[in-house]
Amino acid sequence: MEDDDRVKELKAFEATNAGVKGLTDAGIEKVPRIFIRPADELVEELNYGQSSVQVPVIDLGDDREKVVRELGKASRELGIFQILNHGVDAEVMDAMLDGVRRFHDQDAEVKKQFHSRDVMQKVKYGSNVDLYRSRAANWRDSLTISLMASPRLEPDDLPLICRDSTIKYVEQVTSLGENLFELLSEALGLKKDHLGALKCGLGRTFIGHYYPPCPEPELTMGTSNHTDPSFLTILLQDQIGGLQALHNNQYINVDPLPGSLVVNIGDMLQIVTNDEFISPDHRVVANRAGPRISVAGFFTGDAISGTIYSPVVSENNRARYKDFTVGDYISKFFARPIDKSGLDEFRLQDEDNPQILSLCNDTL
Question: Can you give the pTM of this predicted structure?
Fold first, then answer.
């Protein structure tokens, strides 16, 4: 009966087309039950400490050899870092944040034309991609622009209120992604075009998140702890903060740094690098301040031609993951709560790996 009541509450929330912002506009003082984290999760939270570790800040304008070395170190140890002198203009970033804010600040009736749960829809607005699969809804609304099925961005597909700012931002961040894939290829000891040749930056999804102020932030999350279903993620965040990355069972605050972008390794790159690079667990805490605005750009590889991606292995380094296609990886992502990592689904167990079985048999 409790599950039936929850589904009814979820459907009633979604039927408003107003998202979480609609709740705050209505002046609520208590977090609705569908957003409250389960008791066991709140207890588990006590096991996590707060880390004093600082997320690396890498200046892409430095000597290339130094940049490659620092990117490699950060990608292996934390999987997340901030970058400066990245080539995305400050005014373009500011306009993108403002455009996302203005879209979400519109009346629900205006945003309704984009409201959808269709994963194939190119541009859509909604709240919580895993609303009916998660144990607790997250305190955020999102505008999603998917360039996975087609890399071309059609201006008429975009909301007019943020059209120009989005086009400019996507163009510059796409160029930045191509540059980062070259630098990361070199950090792996490969030719600089290696990840580019794999079309790791072909598919892209940009999501403009809107985190309204929360009356009881200790009871819910802005975004649950998760890893990203991408090769690489480039994040633009405003100055409110709330992003945290998990390292050694402690959360690191990724504090906003003016002019910077946050970059993190995604699941697909961890698989392709065979665990050399780390896809970090990260989350966004709810906040009494707000709204917090962020824009996540996910580089998701080639979902168009069915490219098969495999871990890079050597004689002394067995494959730790199954081969995958982007389509298969993303479809599995949409079938589970976001706090369940896709790495677990694709990781090989010893009995799945013929190389390990052969080694075992040789020792009998």
Answer: 0.94
